[in-house]
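Deviations from the work plan: none for this task. Representative record:
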Amino acid sequence: MANQNPFSAIELFTSALRSNIIPNQEYLLQGSVIDSSAEVLHNRLRGLCDAAETGPETFHDHEMCFSLKASNPGGTPQQQQPFLLRVRRALDHPEYPWQLRYLGQPELGDKNQPTVLRSCIDIACTPNVVEFLSELGCRIEFEYVLKGYLFRKGRMKVTMSKIFRMGQAKSPDSLESVTGSYLVELSLLAPSGQDAVADEIKVFAEQLRPLVHLEKIDYRRLQQPFT
Amino acid sequence: MLFFNFSLQLFAVPEGKSGPQVIEMLTKRAIALGAVLSGSFIVDCETYSSTASLGAPRSVHLLHNSETPASVFALLEAASGNKTVALVADNLFDLLMLKLSNFYTAKKQTKIESRGPRFEAGDFLVKLGSVTMGPAFKGILVEVEYQACSLPAACWDLIREFMQGFLGGCVPSTPPPYIQVCSFFLLPSRFGDMLGTIDGINQYLEQFNAFRKTTGIR
């Protein structure tokens, strides 16, 4: 049923932007736990998080990372910077919509800022998104498979997942794990300016110590060659 | 929401009449056929073009329809020129398009929309749209959807008769091309209803493109 007086989508969108209700900021802490200790952390999370009796949701996702950059050298410096977009699909639920995700540059802030902050746009879409991105001019950079558990604690999301290489055959049997540990991520998506939630995340991360140390990870330092 | 039995018809504005006058006239005719006013509608379209740095030119048409308010339709005209990829996404796609502004920019003065009253007449849905590009009035588009059947070939005659009832002779007696090719849409598909919605959006885009190429009122 249409509204009596529908606003145009652009009007609604502009007003949502202006009133700052779009959850487009991700507060994030990351860490890892070795496979042999994963069960202990799993039990701890199960005890601390919501829906303790039903247990966490499981997920098995395929993620592809695409980049868009100028194909000729004449562009502006911004155009020379690759623009990254991620596509995720649930391998265990092929009927689910696919997800297109934009992640901005992570801001680490000073040492008083409890979490990494990055802009984040999650968009559910139809499965032809890969074809759409290719025609848009994007190139696939890398892909991997994630398998693990998703816990929720209020608005916070905790994932514990193993990363697998995508085999040549691209079949689930050819999965080869990248490391002998689980990636643990604690995140919360909120409209910008709600910095109080970062403290909430920090407090929760403290409760998981010493099983896992969730920290602000500086990717730029990780990308530097070892000396 | 199925749009399989959806027809979008241009109604030529008679000389000496204004847009609102034509809408009023068509409203009277629709009401005489038993149609009941049920709100209003809007379909809009903005076109983004790739910047020179991306090489071969491409365009992304971003459309919204008040009938499906949580979705954005992004129709990409590929660089090869003979292919269109139609993505249906959540409405945060609009925000992503802003982030892409280094590579895709909105063409100036080409934002176009069709808005007006929406009627229900039994199983028919009728929308009388005034098309405007920026501040300029461009013409009238009438959308008729038959909601009771999803076999276009089986009910085209019914739609045509209904449309001729209040639009008169401007309705062609042969089905529009999309009905002839729509056997594709009747293949069993999980995304059948998505394709159906996209089919309606495609017709709007075709008409909008024709309006953009016309100077003055069609």
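The beta strands of chain A are 25-34, 57-68, 83-90, 98-103, 116-125, 139-153, 156-165, 176-177, 181-190.
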